[in-house]
Amino acid sequence: MPDMDTIVSLCKRRGFVFQGSEIYGGIGGFWDYGPLGVELKNNIKRAWWKAMVQDRDDIVGVDTAVIMNPNVWRASGHVDTFSDPLVECKNCHHRFRADQIKGEACPNCGNSNTLTEPRQFNLLFKTHVGPVEDDAAVAYLRPETAQGIFVNFLNVQQSMRKKVPFGIAQIGRAFRNEIITGNFIFRDREFEQMEVEFFVKPGTEDTWHDHWRDERLAWWKRTFHLSDEHIRVKVIRKDRTYIEGPDPDDVDMEKPPHYSKGNYDLEYKFPMGWSEIEGIASRTDYDLGAHQKLSGKSLEYFDDETKEKYIPYVVEPSMGVDRAVLVALFESYQEEMVRGEKRVVLRFPKPLAPIKVAVLPLARNRPEIVAKAEEIAAMLRPHMLTVYDDSASIGRLYRRQDEIGTLYCVTVDHQSVLVDDEKYDGKVTIRDRDSMEQIRVPIGQVKNVLSDKLME
Ligand code: GAP
Fold it and tell me: Are 192 and 319 in contact (CB under 8 A)?
C-alpha cells in the first residue's frame, strides 16, 4: 500500500483533490475536488444510492436543508453534548484533542506539564440567519445529515405510504469544527455523508443492527474490491469494545455516541492505522422521542394491521464520502515494473473509474489521424466518459491514463485511416488498463466492444 504523501501528491498532480483556497495558504480541514475527484466521488455516491435506494423497495431518498431550526440541535443533544475534550499547551499554544494525547508532554514542543486541563469544545459551526447578528438569530451548519431525516419522518412515511420497517436515505454536506483535522481528506471540517435512518419496530432493532452490519460490509467489499484483510468491524457496546475481523488485539475501550445504544464501526486499514469509514448505530427512539418532546408534535407511527401506535426505533448506517474516496485511492494504487520502467496504475473497479476511455492519436502531426481520433471520441462521449488527448507521445499518454485509472485507451494509427498505406485495415487498437493487452477492432465496432467490456 502507498503512503499518504504518495496519494496526496498524485491527487494534486492529476486533478483529484486540491488544498482549499490554496493561493491564500489554504484553510485547515477544507478541500476542493478537481475534475477527476468529482467524477470519482459522484461514482461512489451513485453506487451507494443505487444499492441503498433504487435497488430496494424499502428505502426512499430525501435532500434536506443544511441549516435547520436551532431547536433541532437542542433536541438532538448536539448543542449540549457534541464536543471533544480540548487541551492547550501553555508554552507553544498548540491545541490538541485530549483523548489523542499519550503521556504528559506536549506533542508539538515536547515540554512536560504545560498542557491545560481538558475543557469540552463544541464542534458545531455557528452562523446567523437574517440581518441581525444576535443570540436569537444563531443557527448551526448541520454536523450530520440524519436530523433532516428525523424531522421529516412522518412527512415521508405518510406521503409515500411506507410501512415500518422502512428507511430514508440522504447524501449531503456536513460540517464540524474539528479541533484537529488531518490525514488529507480523512478528517475535514466540511465533508459529505451518506446516511440511512432505518425505522424498525422496537424489540427488532438488534436483528436489524446485525443485518445492516452484514449488508454494509458486503457493499464495501463489493464496491471497492476490498480484501478481507483491509476491512473489519469494531463493536462498541456500553460495557466493552472489541474487533470482529483482522488485528483483533489492538483496541482501546470506547463509548458509543450520545444517541446510540451500540455501534458497529467499519474500519479500513489505512497507512496511519485502522480508522473508521462507516458507523452503524443503534439509535433507538432517541431522536424521534427527543423531537416529539421538544416540538410538542406527535411523531408516533400507527400500524394499520396491528392497530398499535409507537415511536419506531432506528438503525443508522452512516458513511463519509471523502473517506470512501480515500479508500478507493489506497485500494486501487499499484506500482509495477514493466520493461524496466515503473508503471503507476490506479486499478479502480469499473463503475468507479473517473474516465472510462481515452482516445489517443498515434501521430499528432497527421491531420487524418487526429481527425479520426476526435471523431471516435465524439462518437463515444454520449455513451461513456471519454477524453481525447494528443499532448504527448503515446508512451507518456498511456502512463498518464494508467495513473488516473482510465479503463481503456483507443489508439488511432496510420493503419486505421490512411487508405494508401499498404497495411491499412480500418481498425483501431483497444488497450486494457490492467492486462495492457491490445486488440485490433474495426472502427464501426468500437462502441459496442467497449460497452460490452464495461458491462463485464
Ligand atoms: N449520523 C451519525 C454520524 O454522523 P459519525 O460516526 O459521527 O456518525 C459518520 O459520522 C461518518 O461520517 C463517519 O464514519 C465518517 O466516515 C464520516 N465523518 C465523520 N466525521 C468526519 C470528518 N470530520 N471528516 C470526514 N468524514 C467524517
Answer: no
Average pLDDT, the chain: 96
Distance (Å, whole) CA 240 – CA 225: 31
User: What tens digit of pLDDT does each residue of 386-404 get?
Assistant: 999 999 999 999 999 999 9
pTM to 2 decimal places:
0.96
Report the pLDDT value the prediction gives residue 103, as an integer from 0 to 100: 84
Lining ligand 1 with CB less than 6 A are 144, 146, 176, 178, 187-188, 191, 193, 195, 276-279, 316, 318-320, 322-323
Which residues 6+ apart lie within 8 Å of 55 measured at CB?
none
Distance 195 CA to ligand 1 centre (A): 10
Residues 6+ apart with CB under 8 A from 422: none
CA distance 84 to 179: 8
- Cβ–Cβ < 8 Å for 386, 409: no
**Mutation test residue for ligand 1: of 173, 184, 191, 194, the one with most atoms within 8 Å of CB:** 191
Find the mean pLDDT for residues 258-275. Answer: 96
Q: Which of 408, 263, 301, 302 is nearest to 350 (CA)?
A: 408
Contact 389, 400 (CB under 8 A): yes
Residue 89 CA to ligand 1 center (angstroms) comes to 27
d(CA 409, CA 399): 11
> Using 50, 70 and 90 to split pLDDT, how confident is the model at 420?
confident
The rounded distance, in Å, linking the Cα atoms of 241 and 258 is 16
Does pLDDT of 101 surpass 90?
no
Give residue 337's identity as a one-letter amino acid code: M
Whole-number Å distance, alpha carbon 90 to ligand 1 midpoint, is 31
Q: How far apart are CA 178 and CA 84, in angstroms?
A: 8
Q: Is the pLDDT of residue 182 over 90?
A: no
Taking only the tens place, the pLDDT of each residue in 105-144 is 999 999 998 999 999 999 999 999 999 999 999 999 999 9
- Best residue among 183, 323, 326 to mutate for probing ligand 1's pocket (most ligand atoms within 8 Å of CB) is 323
319 Cα: distance to centroid of ligand 1 (angstroms): 6
